[in-house]
Amino acid sequence: MSRPPVGTLAIAIVLLVGTAVGASVHRDDGRRGSSSQVEVVGATVVCPDLRQAKDLLATRVSVGSGLLPEGRASTGGAIDARRLTQEGTSVDVPVTKAGQVAVGLGTGTTKDGLVVSATGDLAAGLEVEQVTRGERGLNRGLAGLRCEPPKPDVWFEGGSTMLGNETTLVLANVDDTPTTVNITIFTAKHDLEPAQAQGIVVRPHTREQIALDTLAPDEDLLALHVQSTRGRIAAGLRHALKTVRATEGVDWVPQTQPPARQVIVPGFASGRGLRALYVTNPGSDDTTVSVKVTTEDGEFVPSGDDAIDVPHGRTVSVRLDDVTLDSALAATVTSDGAPVVAGGFAKDYQEGPVREFAYTAAALPLSGPALVTDVVIDRPTESTLILTAPDGPATVTVIPVPVIGQSGAKPSGAKTVKIAAGRTAILKLSTFFRPGANAQLAVEVRPEPGSGPVYAARYLREHGAHGPLTTLLVLEGPAQLVSRPVVFSDPQVGTP
Amino acid sequence: VTAVLVAHDGAGWLPEAIEALGRSTRIPAHVVCVDTGSTDGSAELLEQAFGDVIRLPRGTGYGAAVDEALHHVPAATWLWLLHDDVAVEPTTLQALLEEAEASPSVALLGPKVRDWNDPRYLVEIGITTDAVGHRETGLERREYDQGQHDAIKDVLAVGTAAALVRRSVWDAVGGLDPHLPVFRDDLDLGWKVNAAGHRVAVVPTALVRHARAATTGHRETDAAPGRATGIDRQHAVYVLLAHASVFRLLGLVPRLLLGTVLRSLFLLLTRQVVDAGDEWRALLGSFGRPGVVHRARRDRARTRTVSQRKLRPLFASRTVRMRARMGALSDWLSGGGVPVSDPNRALGDLGPDSEDFEDLAMGGTGALRRLLLRPGVLLTAGLGLVTLLAERSLLGSGTLGGGALTPTPGGASDLWRSYAGAWHDTSVGTGQAAPPGTAAFAALSTLLLGKPGLAVDTLLLASVPLAGVSAYLAASRMVRHLYLRLWAAATWALLPAATGAIAAGRLDAAAVQIALPLLVLAAGRLLTDDPRVEGWWRAWALGLGLGVTCAFAPQLWPLAAAVLLVGGVVNLAVRGGRRQGVAALLVAVVPGAMLYPWSLGALAHPSRFVIGAQVADADLPAWHLVALSPGGPGAPAAFLMVGVVLAGLAGTVRVDFRRLAQVCWGIALLSLGLALLLSRVTVQGQPVWPGLAVQVAALAILAAALVAASGARTRLARSSFGWRQLLAGIVATAAALAPVAAGCVWLVRGADDPVHRTDQAVLPAFARAELAAQPGLRVLVLRPGADGRLGYALTTADGSTLDVAGLRVTSAQSAALDGIVADLASPRGSNAAEALSTRAVRYVALRSAPGSAALESVLDAQSGLVRRTRASRIELWQVLAPSARLQVLPRELAAAAIASNKAPTSELLVSNPPTALPAGPEGAHPQVSHGTDGRLLVLADAADEHWKASIDGTSLPRQKAWGWAQAFVLPASGGRLTLSYDQTGRHVGLVVQGILVLLVAVLSAPGARRRRGLEDDVDADDEESGHDEPHGRTLAVTT
Prior knowledge:
The structure holds 2 protein chains of 2 kinds. By secondary structure, chain A is mostly beta strands. Chain A is globular and about 110 Å long. Chain B is of the alpha+beta class. In chain B, helix 15 packs antiparallel against helix 16 (436-447). Residues 332-365, 1008-1013 and 1016-1039 of chain B have low confidence and may be disordered. Strand 38 of chain A pairs parallel with strand 18 of chain B.
């Protein structure tokens, strides 16, 4: 060691420098994030039942495709509507590009379902709604439904098979292979898996209508879990009630969110009448839930609603009438144990011999612009948006969208609604027009960037001669962007 | 008794021979001395001892010399034949005569012959031959004389050294054949004597020592110029022909011909060209002189009184020959198998090589015990035990899989077939050349009873002890200190890369771990020695070894080539070693030649060097590499090996061997740089495992550490205690503990995970059965990865197998597939399922993993898929659109397929359903039915210009369907379809590769050992063991 170990030092320095360089360089492999957001390129929704009856009943279908986001180039696309029959007769849809809405499809057909498929730009914002209006009889009332895509798994919260109730489950298969479904029913008393509701086969391009009183007679506060074991299922649940005295109303029960520890049910309109929150515990353990309401004035837990026992397999009803007398609201259900399913029921007590009801359901906050395709503005009808921001201040812009072929009054420009944190806001859509105007239009409800989560519902209420006609539509931002995983070819995946 | 002593350049032995003769208890009546033109003073020596010497010209054969001598003396009853290199015992002649008197039927008697230099060894106790003329002594190589052959026995012949022959018989049979001046004359004489009805016997009580100067090549055989082997072979043929009966001749001639052809071929293959020539010269030498042979036959027929059949017991049977072969083999196994070489030429020679191999060459009792107690063997056993314990969960039935390990196909033949094939059904198929690992594994599997599973088990599970062995052997060339060698071997065997290789199922790393120390050792010798002196075959052999290793681990090639090139250039520039430089260049290129045609593609697409699943850490800290930990599963905490690295650094401080340590570090830095690069890149979305480069670096650093450690104590003791001693102590402790700690960590962790043993298949039985019924259908298997990304494999029913794991489809194909799979796993409403159907995918399988539940509902909602299983180990969805490997598309669909790059919509498929054709095994000819114009025959494989289709002999125009698939335009008329992939190019490539590999193998054979005679000196090999022989070695010179 007579000479200083220059070589050793040099090696050590190279090692250190290499380590430092290595520490500052990282793999660039597109691993940032395991998924990306991509545009929807295809969508199919099913309107389960377009019932028509001369003079008595008319169903109108409105089809729209949301506006393209700013700066997004059009890639084309088309909407194709077909009757849900073996023949699949085509139905003309005038919507040819994004941002258009057409109302009145399907009028004149009898009782088929309707399958609406869209590709390209039109798929991203596809929104289809069916509203059936009955003047008289058991079907008197407004029954509205957002047409949903076929799914493997559907939850409903609503319906009854007590005397006078008629609850029908419509199962539709739009694919080329048979679909097999199992139905689990939860009621106020227990849960049921009727043998005849297991392994129900729905043949390709057909519908099955199942009267629930054949499966679970004399049960109240129904909740349904329709699960396909093979194929996809499009499902609708229609509930009508007629007592000896009078028609009590009709409506579609909207699909609700799958069980969760916390669910939010928006869209309880204010007014005189029955407002009930239904909570079902589909699990195998009892649980206790608390209910918080978010009204136009603030958030609170109604007395007695802070700890509601929900035994396993059963549904409980929580009355919110007192609160809704003064304010529209959204209800937040928090379970301290098992995940729960929730929905809402609203029966209107307008003067007159007949009653009418509507259902709401648990929803997710708007993930993007939501299109409401069927907004009627005339003297007896009022369309209201019920917007709730439970978690923070929110801002939404409501943009009127013209309907093809409608030459009614011109709406004013877009309106911006600010919702304070923990509040519900109401926007009467008639305010887009001068008082007394008649119009048919669509609106897009667009949460502004940076806005807190917004839960939205549209309440359609017609002041009928014999009583009210109501229906509720829970808004969902049609998923324009969906998650798409980053994938990599890995031969190892194919080995045991 | 008349003694005839013939001398020829025998001055080296004569004095001792003459002296021994003088001490004989029975003195021959006459001693006639003949000198055949010696130039070394032999004649003078004889004159001094015996007076008269008959001088004959150089080139006189032994037989002729004896005949000449007999003219000069009166006839005696007995004739005693003596050589100049034979030392008789005092009682030799007496013992021979006593036996001759006791058995009057014996006409020719021979003594027991021992080695001149080491009389412990037996050399000859009578000789015989077998049916094709091999000379047999019935002795094992280097057999000790322990009295085991001490019985008087009849033999076919005895050597002429100190043989006693009855004069009358000698004259009757015509003495030694003048056509056999040297070699085989003795055999011929004995045969003749036997055939004449006399007996030939060996008398063990008569002892001589014989130097066999001509046989071992210590003197020139001027009587028959040429190479000893050639002459011997020629004479063997002559003797056979001369003695064979006419009937036997008919069988013998073709047999000799065939034998000559085969042997010369083998010799040519092992580059023993001259020997091959000898074979032919031997044959032609006899066949070409029919007159001579005829006369010889006539002479022998004249004296023959005993039929050949009666003599049969005297000939060597096949078993004797076999036993001799086995003896040679066991000899080789017990000693020769270890690459023992001149220690003075070793890389970084730090001292004489020592005790390790000293017992090898010594056969005999206790050899086994000594073998078992040798440190190298003990180390191997220890490592083996640790390995067994660590691999407790990897032993048993089923096949190994998981990590980077792909299951093996059923048999070696599958691997060979896959390797030979031009089109590989991986993903959507590729015409890329099969990676060389397939061939390497096929070869290994063929050796291991044709079982690829066994090959994988052996290579992977035994890699730690095998790596220990090779590292021990390499370290033994470097350092003398036993513990240092053991430490180096254990450290190498238990490196993070080594245990990680097992845990992650990296066969390439395991192969490198085993082979690298020996390769580096050989490379070191190559770069320091002159190949012209050492033999160019060493360079070729290193190239061969490197090529074979690179076949398993192709990544090694560029790194090794870089190191060799730098080494070669440095040699050239600094040391002027032009030949070493050329040799290094040669070795760098050889693997590329051996791996042709794959290597050509890999050079064009360097990403192909990264083969198979990588199972690497996505973001490996750079210092882990410096600490020799390449990351990935199974690598212990990175700091374990820091001590080793510091010890390696210490090697560069040493003054005397600083250069060596610096060379090691140069290699290490180069490798670490490459490792750093590899650890920062991805290939097709997979982070690359930098382990192979780390292995090379680790070996270099270990070598540097050995430089530091050898003699460290002495050096440190020179100065008084200070910081140096303290630092050295700390580093030494850390380094010494590294293998111990690594071993403990490995034992505790276990060798498995993610590698595991399983006998399950990927798909449920019903799906496998369905897929087996329709060959060509594929399965898309999905598994969410730990990082949230989705891994997928497009495979056949059997899943990915070893042979296709290294293949990749084109980037366009894989990008398209990536897009489809991502779409499939996304609720965006794409027609991914239909796109899969065009790729012949029947099932989508989802393997359970964290995150698979969410994906399940996405797939459930996907149109075009329908679920087939629920709540099982693997969830299965069926693709609804018709999928088949081979489909006929109706006109409208065909038009869409040609026009569009996008997959068809389900509506289009429903309204224009394609017709499936049986894809069947290759060479099937399905019938295509009559139809309309504009139909398209679509093969669900990537379009490739080598696909060919014809209907009833009319070839079909090629098309591309859906922008990627191979298609053909069908005529309206149907017929028998012939679909094939043109394999000509591949086969040509394989032939070229075969020739290249054969060439390298031939050039790397050491060829004939440079010996000068027929047989080795008995103690020739002992020289290598460093064992001192007691007797004079002056003459025992071998090169």
